[in-house]
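Reviewer 2 asked us to include a model.

Predict the structure of this chain.
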Amino acid sequence: MPAKPKLGQNFLHDASAIRRIVTALGDITDETVVEIGPGNGAITGVLARHAARLIAIELDRELATRLRAFVGSDSVSILEQDVLKFDFAAAAVEAGRKLVVTGNLPYYITSPILLRLAANHAALERAVLMVQREVAERIAAAPGSRDYGLLSVTAQMYGPVETLFTLPPGAFSPPPQVHSTVFRWRFAPRFAALQVNEHDFLAFARTAFAQKRKTLSNNLRAAGYAPTLITDALKQAGIEPSARAETLPLEVLANVFQRLALQPA
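Predicted model (structure tokens):
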């Protein structure tokens, strides 16, 4: 079927890439796999042959109808639904185990989908996802790199991320105007290990990276933290006053947060 640009549809047709994505999921013979945005079913058909159960979530009614005829079976469910409203927790309970997720994410709602997955981490084991190359680079970026920022910290606090491979526009129909990268995300949240509250720490991270060109100290001051508290917290954490958040590993950011939490802004 012709792609619908308003829905961000770019259908993958590279057979080698499809095999690599399914292989990257690992052994799924006993797993329930959730595919986000199956489109014309290029990956769906392969998943259906390997997974114990497949749930494909497709917003486009025409594509959902076509997919049911193409891969419909007792072990495959094609849901015509917005993935942002899908109940991952209920699906995991029904499966009796955590879910495996995959999908070629529409560029225009990539961030909301990633945040939705993060919010449902308790129901998820791992994900292999395709996003715009620049987004994948930001998700997997290391401290001190140009791409390290709020998205990196947020994603990596929910578990390790690794980029797998990048595809050119020609691997899709119609070809997008950007390259796409496949990455694997294993859900193993670090909040408890770092002794920080999930909600409060992520709010702190938004403050720390509010203005990337500013120092961490200036961003915290702009958010209302007392200058003396900031100075003491950075000194105790062994951080230079001129340091920017983009240079600090998760462990160090958590350390600063813990010290500042003694006197919330």
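Confidence is low (pLDDT under 50) at residues 1-8. The radius of gyration is 20 Å. We have added this to the supplementary material.
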